[in-house]
Amino acid sequence: MTASAELSAAERAYEPRAPDFYIVGHPKCGTTALYQMLRVQPQIFMPELKEPWFLASDMEPRFQPPRSASPPKTLEDYLVLFEDAQPGQRVGEASSSYLLSRTAARAIARLRGDARVIAILREPASFLRSLHTQLLRTHVESKKTLRQAISLEAARREGRHIPRRSHRPQLLMYSDHVRYVEQLRRYHEVFAAEQVLVLIYEEFRADNEATVRGVLRFLEIEERVPIAATQANPTIVHMRSQQLDELLNVISVGRGPLSRLAKSAVKRVTSTDVRRAAIHTTQRHLVNGKPPPPDDALMAQLRARFKGEVVALSEYLGRDLVTLWGYDDVH
């Protein structure tokens, strides 16, 4: 039975354990930092597993990637994530896919119609550049430049040129990520305006404390713990070789018969300390490296392409993001 089918049948029985609020995205926009800063508040419970993805039924993975926690498969499994919440605590969940998903907003509303929703938006060109780097590191993307990746978007919509290791190819539709007004409307169609809080990444990054205090007020939570600035998952490394990264995973993890055979062969001729040192050195110098400088021409093209979205978002939210994001001189 699918997640969507189970919600209508079992939501009432489990509603007391369903989250009170959701951080719905986007990735690379501070969702992890916000999750970390909220979960230390004594009046908030958020599970160890960030990104359950459960309510994005349209984004189920093609397969379970290695080195990742298995997401919950049933409503019961999903609600178990929150069973350690104490009486009086606000329960929260953070899945950065829920803003991109076309089904998550209504699934959340069916489960908890009184839930609060938090979205974080970022200037489109810098967001897509950071997102591409992240997808490359996690093997969802295989093209080493954002220009190459975006050029394949039309073909990938038809199911062509999908990387073998891409477990969620929906993430490769880069332009879909920055359709901000469309995404927000999905939530405003099922939640009252006062239940949806839209944050701007650049403001959050400039002043963590003020943003988090605003979130606590939105959640009607008394501030009890000092708020320290946090930067989580910064884009500081670039994947140079996915093939070498896969080889290192074979040696270090040894899953599957061939992987275990390779790991066993390496163990016979090296010590544990030597293997760890070699893997670390290889990852640092050969697998990963500093991100390349921005492709200024591509950044300008993206800003021109998405200016209409920024203008529409400014009108939709009633605030001047055109100036804040520097689009007033983009033609």
Structure summary:
The protein is of the alpha/beta class and 331 residues long.
Molecular structure report:
With about 325 residues, the protein is an alpha/beta fold. It has two domains: about 5-220, Rossmann fold (3-Layer(aba) Sandwich), CATH 3.40.50.300; about 240-290, no CATH class. It is about 45% helix and about 10% strand. The protein is built from 16 helices and seven strands. The strands form two sheets. The chain has a five-stranded parallel sheet, with helices on both faces. Strands 6-7 form a two-stranded antiparallel sheet. β2, α3 (about 75-80) and β3 (about 90-95) form a beta-alpha-beta unit. α12 (about 240-255) packs across α13 (about 255-270) and α12 packs antiparallel against α14. The longest helix has 22 residues, at about 295-315. The protein starts with a helix and ends in a 7-residue tail after the last helix.
Topology (elements, then pairings):
Blueprint: H1 3-14, E1 21-25, H2 31-39, E2 44-45, H3 75-80, E3 90-94, H4 104-111, E4 116-121, H5 124-137, H6 146-151, H7 153-157, H8 174-177, H9 180-188, E5 196-200, H10 201-206, H11 208-218, E6 238-239, H12 242-253, H13 257-269, H14 272-287, E7 288-289, H15 296-317, H16 321-324
Parallel strand pairs: 1-3, 1-4, 2-3, 4-5
Antiparallel strand pairs: 6-7
Helix pairs in contact: 12-13, 12-14
